[in-house]
């Protein structure tokens, strides 16, 4: 029995692959690829595509290639190349040495174009871009042949060589495939396969001034690398006939097979590179690694782990059409990953001073508090306790509402890992009437772990010793966009669409001292507030800033 017969078809792509292998479609090993353009950063949708290609390759004991689609020097940069490689490695989808560049195949792609010209399947066209659009027709009306379509082979070869040698201006000529201007699929209406670009290429320098279009270069690159399956998102389905036409006309043996899966979108965020660029360049966010963005760099800076991202993608499964997934699923994956793995600390985000009037002045106790109640291996930490504390301002209410079970005047609460305290007095600012301090008393018989003599309270709150507290800024996040569906066209109004509450900066928050020892990208839990990560960008500037990865439960405010 073959191994393929032992593999269960978990989704529609599996079924296709198993049938092809049983039919002996390919004599070579399974090989897939992810072909990003180095003109931007990867995002969560990219991660889904990478995961699909990577896992299928490895499921069938094959190879996974990372190949840069670097055929447009006007938009590409080596910084994007390096960032993409780093992000893929961080995600855990290493190509293990199989990193390639489309520009390295320039000679082979050029020769393929020459071969098409010699077959009478390609011609040099002098129509302007505007004229070409007019000639192309519409979805309901067929196109018209270019007046240059019937140029002879020798003339086309001479003109194409002139394009290569820099004898013509940009946009003055293009090389087009000769297919069918009346085809219902507009991608087959004599598409452009080469254009003139006089620009320095980050990899090949000034060697070339003509560059192939993606739809022409991609199948040739796949064939060169021995790709078996070109697995791509559903928006490329209409491009498949052109992919197959190129391979057929070039008589490629055992041609790669293009198949599509659904594109992944997340509610409340943008997963289009074009729109992400508008957000970044418009100054609506703090760069491509802004923690509110679904870029891999943004998710990493926010504090999402590669394990949580992979778990999220695996939980979605294989989708056939474009789908929007609630961002709460990604957050759930993060909680499940972090809950048993990180240490917990106490942090007071909006501090209110508390003085325990019957606690000895100058005294400090070190209280042992477990770092994670679900993981004893993380041990305990010693937390200083003193006369002066900070509580959350929201944990006190002078006129308590119904159901409020925290501290009020004349009532008790339990301090996590410490004592019961009772509020005896409120101190207010004489000018504003704002509460600036609480004066409380503690019961030394209620120290945590001593049994409390059978006494109970309804409220338990966290705290930080004021003289030992470490100051930090904390960033809290909400959905980036008020419209969960995101932009629908180029006229999208970002000013009105961006949620003004998507980032809330809380300054001078008070942390127990152990929490301040965390370094860039370290994760932890702040009791009652959620899971947090030390912001790597601010850490590089010597500032201690924590980003909230997720709250303890789904708490997105609905727009």
TrEMBL record:
Which controlled-vocabulary keywords does the entry list? Aminoacyl-tRNA synthetase, ATP-binding, Cytoplasm, Ligase, Nucleotide-binding, Protein biosynthesis
What's the Enzyme Commission number for this chain?
6.1.1.18
Q: Taking every annotated instance into account, which residue ranges of this chain make up the domain Glutamyl/glutaminyl-tRNA synthetase class Ib catalytic?
A: 31-339
Glutamyl/glutaminyl-tRNA synthetase class Ib anti-codon binding domain boundaries: 345-443
Q: What is the enzyme's class at the highest EC level?
A: ligase
GO cellular component annotations of the record: cytosol
Q: Which Pfam families match?
A: tRNA-synt_1c, tRNA-synt_1c_C, tRNA-synt_1c_C2
The UniProt entry's GO biological process terms, in alphabetical order, are: glutaminyl-tRNA aminoacylation
Q: Which residues form the tRNA synthetases class I (E and Q) anti-codon binding domain?
A: 460-535
- One function term, GO molecular function aspect: ATP binding
Domain of life, source organism:
Bacteria
What family does this chain come from, according to its entry? Belongs to the class-I aminoacyl-tRNA synthetase family.
| Protein name (record) | Glutamine--tRNA ligase
């Amino acid at each position: 029995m073959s191994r393929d017969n032992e593999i269960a078809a978990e989704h529609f792509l599996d079924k296709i692959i198993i049938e092809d292998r049983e039919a002996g479609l390919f004599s070579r090993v399974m090989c897939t690829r992810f072909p990003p353009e180095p003109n931007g950063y990867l995002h969560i949708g990219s991660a889904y595509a990478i995961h699909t290609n990577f896992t299928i390759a490895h499921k069938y004991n094959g190879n996974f290639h990372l190949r840069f689609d670097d055929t447009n020097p006007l938009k590409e940069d080596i910084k994007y190349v390096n960032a993409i490689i780093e992000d893929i490695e961080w995600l855990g989808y290493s190509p293990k040495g199989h990193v390639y560049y489309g520009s390295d195949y320039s000679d082979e792609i050029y020769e393929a174009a020459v071969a098409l010209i010699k077959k009478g399947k390609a011609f040099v066209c002098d129509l302007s871009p505007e004229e070409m659009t007019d000639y192309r027709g519409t979805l309901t009306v067929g196109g018209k042949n270019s007046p240059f379509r019937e140029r002879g082979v020798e003339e086309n070869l001479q003109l194409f060589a002139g394009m290569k040698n820099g004898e013509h201006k940009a946009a003055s000529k293009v090389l087009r495939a000769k297919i069918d201007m009346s085809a219902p699929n507009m991608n087959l209406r004599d598409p452009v396969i080469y254009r003139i670009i006089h620009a320095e290429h980050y990899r090949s320098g000034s060697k070339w001034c003509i560059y192939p279009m993606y739809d022409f270069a991609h199948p040739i690159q796949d064939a060169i690398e021995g790709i078996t399956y070109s697995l791509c998102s559903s928006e490329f389905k209409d491009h498949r006939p052109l992919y197959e036409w190129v391979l057929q006309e070039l008589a490629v043996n055992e041609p790669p097979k293009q198949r599509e899966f659904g594109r992944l979108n997340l509610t409340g965020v943008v997963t289009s590179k074009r729109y992400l660029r508008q957000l970044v360049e418009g100054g609506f966010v703090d760069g491509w690694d802004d923690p509110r963005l679904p870029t891999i760099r943004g998710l990493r800076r926010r504090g999402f782990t590669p394990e949580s991202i992979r778990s999220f993608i695996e939980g979605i499964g294989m989708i056939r059409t474009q789908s929007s997934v609630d961002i709460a699923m990604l957050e759930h994956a993060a909680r499940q990953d972090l809950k048993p793995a990180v240490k917990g600390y106490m942090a007071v985000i909006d501090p209110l001073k508390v003085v325990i009037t019957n606690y000895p002045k100058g005294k400090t106790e070190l209280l042992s508090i477990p770092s994670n109640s679900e993981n004893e291996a993380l041990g305990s930490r010693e937390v200083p306790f003193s006369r002066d504390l900070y509580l959350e301002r929201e944990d006190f209410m002078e006129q308590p509402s119904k159901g409020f079970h925290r501290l009020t005047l004349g009532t008790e609460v339990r301090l996590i890992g410490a004592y019961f305290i009772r509020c005896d007095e409120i101190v207010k600012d004489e000018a504003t009437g704002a509460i600036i301090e609480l004066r409380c008393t503690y019961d030394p018989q209620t120290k945590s772990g001593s049994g409390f003599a059978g006494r109970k309270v309804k409220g338990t709150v966290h705290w930080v010793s004021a003289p030992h507290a470490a100051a930090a800024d904390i960033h809290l996040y909400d959905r980036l966009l008020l419209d969960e569906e995101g932009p629908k066209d180029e006229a999208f109004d970002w000013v009105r669409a961006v949620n003004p509450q998507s980032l809330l900066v809380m300054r001078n928050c008070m942390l127990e001292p152990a929490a301040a020892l965390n370094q860039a990208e370290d994760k932890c839990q702040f009791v009652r507030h959620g899971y947090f990560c030390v912001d790597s960008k601010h850490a590089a500037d010597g500032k201690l800033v924590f980003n909230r990865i997720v709250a303890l439960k789904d708490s997105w405010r609905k727009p």
